[in-house]
Amino acid sequence: MTLGRTYAVSLVGMNGHVVEVEADIGQTLPAFVLLGLPDASLNEAKDRIRAAARNAGVPLSRRKITVNLIPASLPKRGSGFDLAIVMSALAAAGDVRGCGTTVFIAELSLDGRLRPVRGVLPAVMAAVQAGHCHIVVAEENAAEAALVPAAAVRSFGTLAEVALAFGADGAQVTLPAPLHHQEPGTSPVQPAPLKDLSDIAGQQEARFALEIAAAGSHHLLMAGPPGAGKTMLAERLPGILPDLEDDHAMEVTAIHSLSGERHCTALVRTPPFESPHHTATPASIIGGGSGIPRPGAASRAHRGILFLDEAPEYERRVLEALREPLESGRLVLHRASGTASYPARFQLVLALNPCPCGLANGKGIDCTCTAQQRRRYFNRLSGPLLDRVDLQLAVQRVSLADYADGRPAETSDVVAGRVAEARAAQRERLRPWNHATNAEVQGRILRGDLGLPRSVTASLDKALDRNLVSARGWDRVLRVAWTISDLAGRVRPDADDVVTALGFRLQERAA
Q1: Which pTM was predicted?
Q2: What are phi and psi of 201, to 5 degrees?
Q3: What is the CATH number that goes with domain 197-440?
Q4: What does the pLDDT look like over 333-363, one tens digit per residue?
């Protein structure tokens, strides 16, 4: 008897840690001991892999099997360790060979089939970064694992096939009978077609604000009566955003893999769009759950849009929890079981009515809300949160003239072309600071190397002196002004660009 060794990967948030799986077979009565801080779901692997190995024709030893997961101080959870554990036990018994440098990531069913697990993409990425390039996964995870460059991926359908590939006696191995039925939900999910801006009549100011938001990756708030088109506008924002670059697409695909929503067969190139219901809990937005916290809607919207319709109806603590990722682009979740970190650099789009009944538009003669109700309604959105939103505009109802106008509206493709040109100009200008969009530019850069003359920022300086904008708001207005200039093809913003950017804030309109 020898010591068997394989490797697996433990995911803590988006961070993967390579785990060395050791197996030893003693000379005592039958037992199976699993060491190394496994959780309850991982402890269940002991019974799963015994049944799977027996049904695959490579039964485990009847003596005491001790499996140790190194490092022992790292919490380990999930069923993705099944294949690594059984292969290390078979290697210790001499039934298989040559698996001591391979990373195994798969769950086992009782009949010996390999089942897919979530989080394969970040797990394979972590293994390759640690120098382990030979990976074995279930067939359903093969395409996802192969997305990682430099990974030598091998996929199998059953434990018997894996054992044969690593030198097991073919006379002993039993392949399970093929399944003749199609399991529900196994067909690939086709992404929904993007909605087009040409569907929207009128709303020229709102369309311009949407174009600015897309070009500079700015946060957006739209306030207006029901039926004004706020949701329609927000849903068409992904259609004018450029496709994700390789590194960003890898991040987004890894988050989708970790969320377990679907098996990723290709990199996600379209910016994600998340629109949770206003009854969503903090854990569903920010992330949480038992054990190591899972990513929430804010992380799933990474490099895309997080749309909160009827924003004042969300819990106050949900809205306030978004303030940190709006600045840092990252969510760090601390729980008793561990700390998980997820990227969350999203565009926040908020939509709200002018009052609880939604009728306080224009003169508001049909509104039945009291002044106290209106004040309480708007106070659900705190000043610090609103101060982080670059574009704030009032959306009016579409008039009959807009419907009667026979001229076709611009399509998303036309607007996306201008957005792409503006993004290219930003990327070239901000290359020395390793930034890609105006929304990422720090205040010291706006006041330093990219500083504008006082004659250009006079209106903004006056608003700052009158306490109409904060210091953070001053920076954000300048970022929007740079984006407006980029869309117009100018080298630097002029005074009109700054005035236009300043106008896209509800505080100044109210003042």
Answers
A1: 0.88
A2: -90, 135
A3: 3.40.50.300
A4: 887 767 888 999 999 999 999 888 887 776 6
